[in-house]
Structure formats: C-alpha cells, structure tokens
Amino acid sequence: MCAWDGKLEKINDVSWRIPKSYKEGMRVDGIIYANEQLVKHIEEDQAPEQVANVATLPGILKYSLAMPDIHWGYGFPIGGVAAMSYNEGVVSPGGVGYDINCGVRMLRTDLSFDEISGKIDELVNVLFNSVPTGVGSKGALLLDDNEILEVMEQGSRWAVDHGYGWDEDIEVTEEHGRLKMADCNAVSKKAINRGKPQLGTLGSGNHFLEIQVVDEIYNPGAASVFGINNTGQITVMIHSGSRGLGYQICDDYLSIMQDAMKKYNIPVPDRQLACAPAASPEGQKYLSAMACAANYAWANRQVMAHWTREVFRKVLRKSPQKLGMKQIYDVAHNIAKIEEHDIDGTKVKAVVHRKGATRAFGPSHPDIPEAYRSVGQPVLVPGDMGRYSYLLAGTDEAMQMTFGSSCHGAGRALSRKAAMAGASGESISKQLANKGIIVKAASRGTLAEEAPSAYKDVSDVVQTVHDARIARKVVRVRPIGVIKG
Q1: First vs last Cα of the chain: how many Å apart?
Q2: Is the per-residue pLDDT at 379 higher than 90?
Q3: Cβ atoms 304, 199 nearer than 8 A
Q4: Whole-structure pTM value
Q5: Would residue 408 show up in a list of annotated catalytic residues for this protein?
Q6: Within 13 A of 400's CA, how many CA atoms are on the CB side?
Q7: Of residues 207, 239, 353, 408, which has the active-site annotation?
Q8: pLDDT tens for residues 214-261?
Q9: What are the Cα distances from residue 75, in Å, to 284, 371, 431?
C-alpha cells in the first residue's frame, strides 16, 4: 500500500491534526495521537486518509480520533475512535470491525516467577491442550439452540451461572459482561450456527493466552489497587473475541447498511463506511445484533479464564483461590457503546465507536468498579509476544479529549504477508526461547505472522498515551509463556 501524501499539522509532541479543510465533506478535524517516531509509521499507509473519511460521517462529534497504534483497517482505521450523536448521527459496522468485542482479560496471582520457573513449560503445554486454538477451532462446549441464545443475551452471567468462573469476575468486567440491547432476533441463523461450537476457544491470528511476569511498577499506589504488589509477580492475559459469530454479524449488516444508505441518502467517500442512522430501525437492529456478539465474547473469555485457572490448579496442585487468581479487568476494544459525554458543557447521548481502541474512563466514573474509582479504570494494552504488555489507568483528561478512550495494543508495522516473508515460525520460536519465552501455536505460519518485528514497539505507543494524559502507566509485564491462535 502506498504512503499517505497528505500533511499533518503538529499540535504538540504527541498529537497531530488533519484540518477539516483537508477534504471536502469533513465535518470535524481529525486528531492523531502519536510521537514523532510513530508518525513516520502512520504515514506509511492510508490510515490517516481513513481518519479523514470518518470525519465526513453524519452526526460526528468534536473529532475523528486515532490512537498511536493506528493502522489501515476496514473503513475505519484500526485504532480509530469516533462518537456520533445518537439522535442525529450514524452507526457503522466498519467502526467496530469484524471481530466484535475482541478484547483482553487480565488475571493476577499471588505467585512469583521463582515459584513457577520450573513449571512454565508444563503450564504452557497443558494450557495449549485445554484451550482450543486456531482457525475454525471448536471447543468442548457444544451449545444447543437454546443455550447459544442464552449466551448472547446474558454474556458473562451465563458462563458464571454454569460454573465457569466466579461472581466477582463479573464485577470487574466492562458492562458487567453484558450489553442489555442484545436481541437474538436481530442475528441470522448462519451467525448463530457459527457461534454454537466455538465458545471457549481462542481463535487465530493475534489472539493469545499469555503467562507474564511483572517487570516494572510505575505507580505503586494504583498497582496495589489493581492487585499488583511486587515485581516478579505472575499475571495472565487472554486476548480473544466473538469468533465466527461476530464475523458473520458484521458481514450480514454491511449488506443491510449499503441498502440503508440509499434509503436515507447518506453519501460516504468509501463504501466500507456503510452506515445507517443510529436511531433508525436498521441502526437499532445492528446495535442489538452487535450486543449479542459482544455478550458472546465476554462469555468466551470468561470460559477461557476458568479453564486457565483449572490448568494452574492441575499443574501447581493448589486451588485458584489459594493461588490468588483474581481477575483485574476485562475490557473490549472493538465495540460501539451508547454513552453520555460532555460536549461543550452539554451532556450528549452518543454512539462511541472504538475500533482497536480501549475504553479508559477516569477516576470516580460511575461505570467503573467501585474498587477502582480512586485510580481510574484499568486499561489493558498487550504488546507483541517478544516484548511487553501494559496495565494502565484511565484519566479524567481522556473523558474530555478522547471520549474516554486509549490505545489497545502495539499496532502492526508489517502486514501478515510481509511478516511471513521475513521470518519462519521455527526461527521465531527459537528466538523467543533464547529470550526465555516458551511459545506454542496452532501453526508455524501463525508464529511468522505474529513475529515481534511485525509490530510497533508497544512501549512507544504506551508512552504516547501516557504523555498525552489519556491513560497513565501503572505496570509493565513481559511474557514468559505464550499460546497463539
């Protein structure tokens, strides 16, 4: 893909503007958060043009935003954030993505690296055999027609009520693991059938289950609130989404939205921005179907978290309770949420699209767990499998600047095809082993696609959002055992 030939206006060291005069039809400016080094990567593809395109959508509020992990996506850039007026704006499946509620869950433990250093290989192998991975993978849970409907409507609660996890997990899950707008009548039979065999599966691509060790603590007070007290402490991250169910829902509604644009006379500069008024029958139906996929994804990660605890129980011969395997948080990063935001002193009901972007609500916000309101919402930012991941905290500034949003990961620097051309899965496995990282994947091709060199350095991305004050650094962790989809 060719480099972007537009020009960014520097606002400060970590933010840049695409003025609305750049392109006919832009209703607001585009704002990209990035430092000087990251901007060079961002301008290598057409992601900034996508930021400008999103700025043309009806009802967009304040800005078309992009996080420092921005890269080319379908319609919206990955790393894009846009809030639309609920009453006057649109909802766009391209602003959510195909993997609806792809997200991250993080567990903490009372274990130290020294306690499990001799068990990492066994933990990774047993996890790999216990949590299905790979394209089209099917799980041990084969849902019947009624159960899949219950999962889509109840989300995490269904999983916990069926013995997969603890009630307290729900308290520290975004939206308590359930969007109430879910309506199974808005979901096609084809989508439902794709979801029935896949609950409790990791999937493919950049999805992972990772054993980590706390490497650095930046804010001891906030870290303690989140349950992190020492370097050397063991944590676990799970990154997955709604699998084939979410993919099919997105695919179904892109066709519906194409017809809706003709009906409501909505012109867009890119057909991938297919949309409908949020308050229209088509918009409401998409939001209801998207909520079903989001709930399925929360249940999916809930089940995998339960199985992860059971693997630790089996290998370490202690209960998850005695191991202190409590959930820190679970947050979505491919979703559209109906939220209320302050726009120039007025409370406005908005549909906030976060595509490859994580909610980052500040301290005291009523929508975050009461236990975290002194420090802000946990923000989970995974990196690549050879470097670091981060636990951040949302800020009050983010509420004003980014609709309470932050980055969601490192962001790709190379396409999957380019990454595979530059490395083999076997060589990546050996490189990671030399760094003390044990990795298992469904295929060697996945390892090559997910090579650390294929990603930006997540530390640069995180430092940018920290310096921009839209999320603050709390803890850095590094991988020691990785399962890739």
Answers
A1: 26
A2: yes
A3: no
A4: 0.96
A5: yes
A6: 7
A7: 408
A8: 999 999 999 999 999 999 999 999 999 999 999 999 999 999 999 999
A9: 20, 37, 35
